[in-house]
Specification:
By secondary structure, the protein is of the alpha+beta class. It has helices at 8-29, 34-45, 57-74, 84-102, 110-142, 148-156, 180-185, 189-209, 235-259, 294-309, 317-323, 360-374, 378-391, 395-410; strands at residues 166-177, 212-218, 221-226, 267-282, 287-292, 313-316, 327-336, 344-352, 421-422. Strands 1, 2, 3, 4, 5, 6, 7, 8 and 9 form a nine-stranded mixed β-sheet that branches. Strand 4 and strand 5 (287-292) form a beta hairpin. It is elongated and about 105 Å long. Residues 1-6 and 47-55 have low confidence and may be disordered.
Length: 426
């Protein structure tokens, strides 16, 4: 691995090293070290009348470069091995000392040794204190929306957290309570806050237990993402797993709310996987670790489409390709979401893969219906969708396509139509 020659820590330590060099030089020029220097050189040369060279400009210049080299070495070596740096330089100095001694010339090692140890100790103490402060800062930033075990890992290894923006493949999640405004109108402010806190706590616990990060709460909506700040190769699966567990938890919550005389709620979830920018976005004093990009916007649009298709969880093509071995689902449509011209296939998650047998008839009939629809066989598609409507709990899906087939029978789409439906609402 190449050495890092310029970052925030090295820059700060260079200033500290420069300060040490200046203070050391002032003390040396004023003769403050003369007694220590004589004793030290006496030990080296095994005689009391040891050389006591004046700190000339050449000596000070060599100490400056020693200072620079030490800072670079110390800040590119693990703390446990950093003590090697000053002693390695001392061995080089001592080797030069022995060579020059053979020629009858005596070098003064006092300044090199004590400056090296001073720079080393001050750098190590500063790095320890700054690392501890950085760890506490990271803990404060993530403890409210990242699982405790991941907070520990990130704070103990801050190098895994790349501050600032970077492009990564992640999975992003949006969920929203259906008809929340009408629900909120029926509650007092105190009851509404208590209701939302219980709801958000349940969702947050599930998301963080599955390695996700709760990005933000937007009114009654929740935004979360997987795959950062810690790498998670299974981020699409963990995101969909969270969504499925949240729906299961919602049944339990609804039972408790109904018992208390509170309304039952329904929710929709949209999930998308792809490249997006992740990082700390905001001001220097207030920021949020968040994600931005087309895939984020797509996930938000998919959440909105759950109302249109009557589905509970809708995922993008990218997400489906990565989770289809763990979950069963069905193709919903070839849709161009609002703000996008290129259509994508979108899928509804029906259940876990192990329960796919229970959805086989539903999935097969849906595939036949959509195949006829995309081939512009409106009557055949209508027949299949009517049969699907009889066995599907989601009546909106089949009713939607029955209406489309009726419309296209009367007003056929263009000859180059490939089956895409342009969405006009979010």
């Amino acid at each position: 691995m190449l050495m890092n020659f310029w970052n925030k820590k090295i820059k700060q330590n260079l200033f500290i090293g420069l300060g040490v060099w200046i203070v050391f030089g002032v003390f040396a020029l004023t003769g403050w070290f003369s007694g220590w220097q004589e004793s030290f050189n006496g030990l080296i040369y095994k005689q009391a009348a040891a050389v006591a060279a004046e700190p000339t400009s050449w000596i000070l210049l060599s100490l400056f470069f020693e200072d620079l080299i030490l800072v670079m070495l110390i800040n590119n070596i693990r703390p446990a091995y950093s003590l090697v740096a000053p002693f390695s330089l001392m061995m080089l100095y001592y080797g030069a000392f022995r060579i020059f001694l053979n020629f009858g010339m005596r070098l003064d090692l006092f300044y090199a040794f004590f400056l090296g140890m001073a720079v080393y100790l001050i750098n190590i103490v500063y790095n320890f204190l700054s690392f501890d402060a950085e760890r506490k800062k990271i803990r404060r930033a993530f403890e409210f929306y990242l699982a405790p075990q991941y907070v520990e890992e990130v704070s103990a290894n801050p190098e895994k957290l790349k501050l600032g923006g970077e492009t990564k493949e992640l999975t992003v999640y949006f969920s929203d309570i259906r008809a929340f405004s009408s629900i909120a109108e029926k509650m007092s402010a105190a009851d509404l806050v208590s209701f939302l806190n219980e709801y958000f706590t349940a969702l947050t616990n599930i998301i963080t237990e599955n390695k996700g990060v709760v990005d933000k709460y937007i009114g009654d909506a929740v935004m979360a993402f997987w795959g950062s700040p810690l790498a998670d190769p299974n981020h699409p699966v963990n995101a969909v797993k969270s969504a499925w567990e949240i729906l299961s938890k919602l049944k339990e919550l609804n039972a408790g709310w109904i018992a208390k005389g509170l309304p039952e709620i329904k929710m929709g979830i949209g999930i998308s996987t792809g490249e997006m920018v992740v990082g700390n976005i905001g001001s220097e004093s207030r920021f949020n670790d968040t994600v931005i990009g087309d895939e984020v916007n797509l996930a938000s649009r998919l959440e909105g489409l759950t109302k249109y298709y009557g589905a509970r969880i809708i995922v993008s093509q990218n997400t489906w390709d990565k989770v289809k071995n763990d979950f069963c689902g069905r193709l919903l449509d070839l849709a161009a979401v609002k703000g996008k011209e290129k259509p994508i296939k979108i899928y509804e998650i029906l259940g876990l893969k192990k329960g796919e047998a229970g959805f086989k008839e539903l999935i097969d009939l849906g595939e036949r219906a959509l195949s006829a629809y995309f081939e512009k066989k409106w009557e055949e598609a209508t027949d299949h969708f009517k049969k699907l409507n009889q066995i599907d709990q989601n009546k909106m899906f089949s009713a939607l396509f029955i209406e489309r087939c009726r419309k296209f029978s009367n007003e056929p789409p263009p000859a180059d139509w490939q089956g895409a439906w342009q969405m006009t609402e979010k």
